[in-house]
Amino acid sequence: MGVINFIIENILTQASITISLIAMLGLILQKKSIGQVLSGSLKTLLGFQVLSAGSSIIVGSLTYFGEIFTEGFHMQGIIPSIEAINGQAMNELGLGRDIALTFLAIFIFNILIARFTKWKYIFLTGQAILWMATMTTVFGYFAGLRGIVLIVVGGFIGGVFAVAMPAIAQPFIRKITGSNDIALGHFCTLGYLFEAGVAWLFGERGENKKSVEDLKLPKSFEFLQDTYLSVMVVMVPLYIVTVLFAGEEFGSTLSGNQNYVMFAFLQAIQFVVGVYVLLAGVRLLLGEIVPAFRGIAMKLVPNAIPALDCPVFFPYSPNAVILGFITTTIGAVLAMFILPTFGLAMILPGMLTNFFAGGTAGIFGNAVGGRRGAIIGGVAHGFFITLLPALLVTIFNSMGFINATATDVDTVAAALLYAWIISPIMKAF
Q1: CA–CA separation, 89 vs 87, rounded Å?
Q2: Burial class of residue 250 in the structure, from the number of CB atoms within 10 Å of its CB (0-12 exposed, 13-18 middle, 19+ buried)
Q3: Given CB 3.0 to 4.6 Å as the disulfide criterion, which of 61, 280, 286, 308 pairs with 270?
Q4: How far is CA 293 from CA 159, 297, 302, 418, in A?
């Protein structure tokens, strides 16, 4: 058990190591030379670490923005955090071992389902699987499941989600990427499908469809066609205006000895730096993982497709990512004020979710309904990803997780599946 726990906690939960080992396996199965195996494996590891470094820079910048946003607009409510739920489940309920074994079970069921069904997707976003394992374990525990049953049921449900979500999203991914080489492995997929549906209903179609990426600008503004400059032009005013609303007294507590407005400006630039690093990591990662994965496709799971984290798709439609972030934030703010009028909890906008999930949803909305679809769909997406966590708050309160909820809508859907279906069945027996 100690070895299994070590493997789960130190290898399988480390996405970069997991993906590089999978790349190594794929290259070995193709009978590549030792040099090629080492080169491909290390470049995969490097690419993912560069991607992660970019994400970390973005997270740091958005964490700061979230603080000044909350202070500047005097918002009080619940901030969704699956990390807090994971910590409480392991420390107070003693579910750490069950969560770890459920994580492993999800991975095993994913491979089995991919091997023996037409869904050939291998979900490679380890952190997302960990959050799914947390939700299925916690809700399974409160439904009355224990021991091996708790782990197997959670592993099976998580495994089904791990292949079903990439499978459902794949028609859109083929349209976005122009190929079937990679899939989307991110447990916010229901939100992306929701935006795509809204974009299809209210967006542009056929010859009338105008992509966000084809935006024509006057000559004096052509510099905005550069992805990084266009991001900068959006983010710098957003940060500066927000910190001015927060005020000098609060802003100075975050900026230290530096002028609070200048600090906000530099944090906005840090965000752009993070995007640059992230996209560089994506290019390096894709250059190695797709060829290496063919070995697994040929030997272990015929025709297997790697399901990768959402930032991998940002280079395919960078303008839609920024539009998706902005419109999702608008929708989340609207939901924050509207949902409490219906007796639901006030959920504060999570800037990290709004960027990563909102940006990806923007790509879907743009692909389906053009600019109009991305704008209307983005606002609807922000409302949707706020509504589902709000529905969970009361359930979490009854379980002892006071004023807590989660973000990724697929994991929320899994939790609601337990709460509304599995738990009543268990109580009936």
Answers
A1: 5
A2: middle
A3: 61
A4: 20, 6, 11, 34
The reported pTM is: 0.81
Give the separation between CA 260 and CA 47, rounded to whole angstroms: 34
- Residue 162's nearest CA partner among 115, 124, 116, 117 is 124
Closest CA to 52 of 311, 272, 235: 311
Q: Answer whether residue 224 shows pLDDT above 80.
A: no
Lowest model confidence (mean pLDDT) among 8-12, 14-18, 118-122, 362-366: 8-12
What tokens were used for 185? 């492995």
Residue 236, φ and ψ in degrees, nearest 5: -60, -50
Calpha distance 24→400 (Å, rounded): 44
How far is the C-alpha of 142 from the C-alpha of 157, rounded, in Å?
Answer: 16
What does the CA dihedral 404, 408, 410, 412 come to, rounded to 10 degrees? 10
d(CA 251, CA 268): 14
Q: What are the phi and psi torsion angles at 73 (to 5°)? A: -110, 15
**Helical (H) or strand (E) element with 306:** strand 305-308
Torsion from C-alpha of 138, 140, 145, 146, nearest 10 degrees: -30
Q: Is 9 within 8 Å of 97 (Cβ atoms)?
A: no
Among residues 195, 186, 236, the alpha carbon closest in space to that of 331 is found at: 195
| Ramachandran assignment for 91, one of left (phi > 0), alpha (psi -120 to 50 degrees), beta (any other) | alpha
In this structure, the strands spanning 305-308 and 183-184 are parallel
C-beta separation of 250 from 75 below 8 A: no
Rounded Cα distance, 368 and 198, in Å: 9
